[in-house]
Design goal:
globular; four-stranded antiparallel sheet; seven-stranded mixed sheet; mainly beta
């Protein structure tokens, strides 16, 4: 059974930081690129970060570039999203996803498996 479980969300003030974690099954994680997406109320799901299987390549949209960092620990089957200098506009449910291949992608349809999400709320 393939499962992705996010953790680390919470309530922080603007300018604060959070570190999200996503644990996956070894079988899926060891062969897949991983991605992070977020969805705010009334908004479409938005790409946040992606990392290749080997962690040699990462991509970020301009909205988070320089503030968010994605990393992975293949030995622990876990991907992380470190977020600093958080803004109220970062408030959303954050989802991790496992790709169909080892290559990173900003497209949601490139991912086969999704977690349940973790809430991040940034107060002003």
């Amino acid at each position: 059974q393939v499962q992705l479980v996010e953790s680390g969300g919470g309530l922080v003030q603007a300018g604060g930081s959070l570190r999200l974690s996503c644990a996956a099954s070894r079988r899926t994680f060891s062969t897949s690129a991983m991605g992070w997406f977020r969805q705010a109320p009334g908004k479409e799901r938005e790409f946040v970060a992606t990392i290749s299987r080997s962690a040699s390549t990462t991509y970020y949209p301009d909205s988070v570039k320089g503030r968010f960092t994605v990393s992975r620990d293949n030995a622990k089957n876990t991907v992380f999203l470190q977020m600093i200098s958080l803004k109220p506009e970062d408030t959303a449910v954050y989802y991790c996803a496992a790709g169909r291949s080892a290559y990173p992608s900003s497209r949601a349809d490139s991912y086969d498996y999704w977690g349940q999400g973790t809430q991040v709320t940034v107060s002003s």
